[in-house]
From TrEMBL:
Coiled coil: none annotated. GO terms for cellular component: cytoplasm. It comes from the Eukaryota. This is isopentenyl-diphosphate Delta-isomerase. Belongs to the IPP isomerase type 1 family. Residues 73-220 form the Nudix hydrolase domain. PROSITE patterns: NUDIX (PS51462). One of its GO terms (biological process) is isopentenyl diphosphate biosynthetic process. GO terms for molecular function: isopentenyl-diphosphate delta-isomerase activity; metal ion binding. It comes from Jimgerdemannia flammicorona.
Length: 266
């Protein structure tokens, strides 16, 4: 892993040890939720410790239940920020059918590598890249040829916790992936209800007045706004390549202004 791991907790609760923890999952009935979304809750996510070491697997449902999160359950995830050739960021509005964070606007794609060989592979983040390519096609209909694995730029990892309601939430080590590409989008309406491209200024206005977008952003506001400014700079580099900063150094410099704690391995 080349990038440091940052912590970003949206709660004051401490995160205890995972040792000997019994996760709750089967006890929660999903019959009242969308059938396809309930099926996807049985996918097996990759469990990690606070240093992003693989320690096992559990269902997507178990990983997103606040009862388990409050007891320390942590899984691996990714967030894709895709910019077009004009430097605009592709956002998606999550479908109403989604069990966690329905109707909310977020970055291009947020999801999880799954617990099978191709997506467990860690060298050069290839497993996470494969998962990102898979989910971009699943959610947005983007052909994998338009988002090649070697064109994803891995920037950093963020360890963050975000409650949604009393039952569901997120507790992830989130791999931040950046790509600049022009893509054809055909949304999967069970996953996504709308998409839009935005400039940094348009994104700032969405944060200032969420009603303009029809829903709140589901990633941490200060983090995503700062990160998009970083990515916008990367997608519009200065004329002289000699003045460009290494990706991780640029991220580290900007993140110093956020309430992030550097932890784990570099």
């Amino acid at each position: 892993m080349s990038a440091k791991l940052h912590k970003f907790f949206l709660t004051s609760d401490c995160i205890p040890s995972l040792h000997n923890m019994h996760t709750m999952g089967n006890e929660i009935n999903l019959d009242n939720y969308d059938e396809e979304q309930a099926r996807l809750m049985e996918e097996m996510c990759i469990l990690v410790d606070k240093d992003d070491n693989n320690i096992g697997a559990d269902t997507k449902k178990a990983c997103h239940l606040m009862k388990n999160i409050n007891e320390g359950l942590l899984h691996r995830a990714f967030s894709v920020f895709l910019f077009n050739s004009e430097g605009k960021l592709l956002l998606q509005q999550r479908a109403a059918e989604k069990i966690t964070f329905p109707d909310m606007w977020t970055n291009t794609c947020c999801s999880h590598p799954l617990n099978f060989k191709a997506e467990l592979e860690e060298e050069n983040q290839i497993g996470v890249r494969r998962a990102a390519q898979r989910k971009l096609e699943h959610e947005l209909g983007i052909n994998p040829t338009q988002v090649p694995l070697d064109k994803f730029t891995f920037l950093t990892r963020i360890h963050y916790l975000a409650p949604h309601d009393g039952m569901w939430g997120e507790h992830e080590v989130d791999y931040i992936l950046f790509m600049k590409a022009n893509v054809d989008v055909t949304v999967n309406q069970n996953e996504v209800q709308a998409v839009k491209y935005v400039t940094p200024e348009e994104l700032r206005k969405m944060f200032a007045n969420p009603e303009l977008a029809g829903g709140m952003m589901c990633l941490p506001r200060a983090f995503i706004h700062t990160l998009v400014l970083i990515l916008y700079n990367l997608s519009n580099p200065p004329p002289s390549s000699s003045t460009r900063h290494p990706h991780d150094s640029l991220v580290q410099a900007h993140l110093r202004n956020l309430p992030l704690q550097v932890v784990g391995r570099s």
